[in-house]
Amino acid sequence: MASAMNPATLQGVRLAATDVAAPLMAAVNTPFRVAADYVTAVTGLAELQAENERLKSENARLREWYQTALSLKSENESLQQLLNLKLPPPYTYITARVIADAGNTFARSLLILAGQNDGVIKGQAVLSGEGLVGRVIESGGRAARILLLTDMNSRVPVVIEGSDIKAVVAGQNSATPALIHLPRDHELQAGARIVTSGHGGLFPPGVPVGYVVLGDNGQVSVQLLAQADNLSFVRIIDRVLERTVLDNLAETPAVISPAAAPAP
C-alpha cells in the first residue's frame, strides 16, 4: 500500500518524522558535542601549557646566559684594570682571584685563590689596577692571605713623589692609614702623591699608594688608591731577584702585636 501512496505524501511523512526526531537527535548529540569541545579545549590548553613551559625554560636559560655575560664582563674589566699599573722589569706577576675576607686575628685582610703551588709566598707585594693593596702574610698550597694597608699591623716605607720626604704608611684599622715618621721640617702639600720607596727590599719602589690628606689637628693620613672592598682580582709581584729577601722574611714573624704597634 505504501508503494501505492503518492510520493508527495511520503515526503510529507518523512518531513514530519524528521521534525519529531530532530530535537531528540540534538539532545542526544549535545553531550558528545560538549565532550568534543572539552577535549579540544583541553588539548589546546595542554599545548598552551607546553608552550608556556618551553618559553619559561628558554627564558631561564637566557637569564643564565645574561648573568654569565655580566660576570664575564665584570671579570674582564677587573683584569683590564690590573693592566693599568705597569712596573719595569724584572717584575713578573701572579694574577689571582679574591675569594673573601675569612676573618682571623687580622682585622683587615683578604683571601686569594692562589698559593705556594702557584708561586705565592709570604712577603710578596700585592697590587690592584690602581696601586698597592698589601702583602702576602700567609700562603698555603692553594690559597693565601693578604694583609691590607689598612690593617694596624701593616707598615709600608714610602716617599712623597717628586721630593726626598720619606715616611711610613701605618694601618689604623680604618679606611685611611696614617703617615708616620715624617721629618720634623716637612712641608707636605695636600694631595701629594705617595709611592713606595723600596726601602728594606720588601716592596718594589715606585708603586702608587695614595695621596696626602692633611687633618685639622695636624695629623697626616693617606687616601689610598686601591679600594679593597671592590676587588675581584689582584696581582702578586714575583721578583726572582728578591727571592732571597722574601725567603728570609718567611723565617721571621709577620705580625706587629697591638701592644708593640705605634700609636696612631
Structural summary, described in words:
With 264 residues, this protein is of the alpha+beta class. It folds into two domains: 7-82; 92-264, Thrombin, subunit H. It has two helices and twelve strands; from the N terminus they run αββββββββββββα. The chain has helices spanning 7-82, 243-249; strands at 92-100, 109-112, 125-127, 132-139, 144-148, 155-160, 166-170, 178-180, 193-196, 208-214, 220-224, 233-238. Strands 1-2-5-4-3-12 form a six-stranded antiparallel β-barrel. Strands 8-7-6-9-10-11 form a six-stranded antiparallel beta sheet, with no helix packed on it. The longest helix is centred in the first third of the chain and has 76 residues, at 7-82. It is elongated and about 140 Å long. The termini are far apart. The model is unreliable at 240-245 and 251-264 (pLDDT under 50).
Number of helices: 2
The CATH topology name of the largest domain reads Thrombin, subunit H
Unreliable residue runs:
240-245, 251-264
Question: What distance separates the N and C termini?
Answer: 131 Å
The dominant shape is: elongated
SSE series = HEEEEEEEEEEEEH
Instruction: Give me the secondary-structure category.
Output: alpha+beta
Q: Could you report the average pLDDT, rounded to the nearest whole number? A: 77
CATH class of the largest domain: Mainly Beta
How many independent structural domains?
2
Rg from alpha-carbon coordinates: 40 Å
CATH architecture of the largest domain: Beta Barrel
Largest β-sheet summary: 6 strands, antiparallel, barrel
Side-by-side strand order of the widest sheet? 1-2-5-4-3-12
Count every beta strand, where a strand is a DSSP E run of 2 or more residues: 12
Strand content: 15-25%
InterPro entries: Cell/Rod_1, Cell/Rod_MreC_2, MreC, MreC_beta-barrel_core
Family: Belongs to the MreC family.
Pfam families: MreC
Keywords: Cell shape
